[in-house]
Specification:
This protein is mainly alpha-helical. It has helices at 11-25, 30-37, 41-44, 50-63, 76-92, 97-101, 109-125, 129-150, 166-173, 179-203. It is flat. This is TetR/AcrR family transcriptional regulator.
């Protein structure tokens, strides 16, 4: 048989199948990807560096949805907030990838370029180098935690009756739609307030 005009396997196809498996099951395996693509497992290793290589393909695919143009905003705080909102939306679409990706070092060139741009935004704003990565890590914790929260039920608390937890029941009854969005905006505002305070502290 001649070779197919359209290759059965390439990096974009591997990324698509791997992400579909993680979205469905929270995990993937290289043999499972090969079966879905109709090729031998060994064929994948001509395109990716094993499991770690597949994980970076997944990271690149998910983070392609992040709007990096936000980082070009003139004001550093606007740039950071808008990037955080876009980052959250990208991962909220694939919440099951979060535990997988957070346990592996970031090597994907596209994501490393985003970090480079975020670091530049903070340094150009006047933040001390020693403060930059803790700030980025804290922001990511907020973003990814909220992305997971978006995948949770709208109501996470279910008291058996209102008599044993009257105040909790009252507070739950007052919740409108968009609990996760409201919580994220509170956390983001708190982070931005802290970051502005750090910047002002250099001048004090």
């Amino acid at each position: 048989m001649g070779r197919p005009r359209t290759p059965l396997i390439d990096r974009p196809r591997i990324a698509t199948v791997a992400l579909e498996l993680v979205d469905a099951n929270g995990e993937f395996s290289v043999p499972a990807i090969a079966r879905r693509l109709g090729v031998q497992t060994g064929s994948l290793y001509h395109h990716v560096d094993g499991r770690d290589g597949v994980i970076e393909l997944i990271r690149e695919r998910v983070t392609e949805a992040i709007d990096v143009s936000t980082l070009s905003a003139p004001a550093w705080d606007t740039a950071l907030q808008d990037w955080a909102r876009s980052y959250r939306a990208a991962f909220a679409a694939h919440p099951k990838v979060i535990p997988l990706l957070t346990t592996h070092p970031v090597r994907a060139p596209g994501m490393l370029d985003q970090y480079e741009r975020v670091v530049r935004v903070l340094m150009d704003a006047g933040f001390a180098t020693v403060d930059v990565m803790p700030l980025i890590t804290a922001l990511e914790n907020t973003v990814l935690g909220s992305a997971l929260d978006l995948a949770a039920p709208e109501t996470m608390w279910e008291p058996a009756d209102t008599t044993s937890t009257p105040r909790l029941s009252q507070a739950l009854a007052a919740i409108g739609e968009g609990r996760a969005d409201a919580a994220f905006e509170i956390a983001l505002a708190a982070f931005m307030g802290y970051a502005r305070g750090v910047l002002e502290g250099y001048e004090g």
